[in-house]
Amino acid sequence: MTLPIQDEQGRPTGRTMRIGDPRQQSLAAIRAKAVQMLAACKAGNDPRIDASPAGLRLQNAFDRHLESMIRRGRSKETIEDYRYKLDRYLSEWKNALLSKITQPKDGTKRAFTMPLSDDLIGLLSARKVDNAKRFPDSPYVLLAESKSGHIEEPRPTRFVVVGGKRWKARDAALPLPHALRHTFAAV
């Protein structure tokens, strides 16, 4: 038995979804399943997807996130950038269950395995040696002489002379260093 699929405006798409085989299930059971699936559709859910956290896959979660971004009016370029990154960097994980993907958030629980190139391992090793000399007790990779001991939100500044004195002033004409990552990514 099949159920016709409709688009967001309720128009028939010409596609159908198989619900059950009357040779294996009773017609009443198939009809009951159809009613549940229609209710899920009306609620805005795809009945073919297990929406529980245990059954949700990365691609399904990503699609839901994009739908939310579109509803909130995010730019077309941002949405395309997200799609590109999923296809470029996470394509092997698209069908992975979210429950099987872990990025823990606290302390040692936060640790995860990440593949690194030999060049990056070399850079991090050199940083570790230099950090041990300059800041022997710091656990951070990117250190700074700040209260926290790590890089905080840096602000571009310039010096101005007012009344014969040199003053440090925030320069609104200069971009924040965080925004420079866009330049790096573009290059």
Any overview of this molecule?
This protein has a two-stranded antiparallel sheet with strand order 1-2. By secondary structure, it is an alpha+beta fold. The termini are far apart. The longest helix is centred in the last third of the chain and has 17 residues. The chain has five helices and four strands, in the order E-E-H-H-H-H-E-E-H. It has four domains: 41 residues, no CATH class; 65 residues, no CATH class; 37 residues, no CATH class; 32 residues, no CATH class. The chain is elongated. The model has no long low-confidence stretch (mean pLDDT 77). A hairpin with a 2-residue loop joins strand 3 and strand 4. Helix 2 runs antiparallel to helix 3.
C-alpha termini separation: 54 Å
As a percent range, the share of strand residues is: 5-15%
Tell me the strand order in the biggest sheet: 1-2
Helix content: 25-40%
Write down the domain tally: 4
Mean pLDDT: 77
- The count of β-strands is 4
What structural class should be given to the helix and strand makeup? Answer: alpha+beta
What's the number of helices?
5
Q: Element order, helices and strands?
A: EEHHHHEEH
Shape: elongated
The major sheet is characterized as: 2 strands, antiparallel
Unreliable stretches (pLDDT < 50, length at least 5) are: none
Based on CA atoms alone, the radius of gyration comes out at 27 Å
Features:
about 35% helix; two-stranded antiparallel sheet; 4 domains; alpha+beta
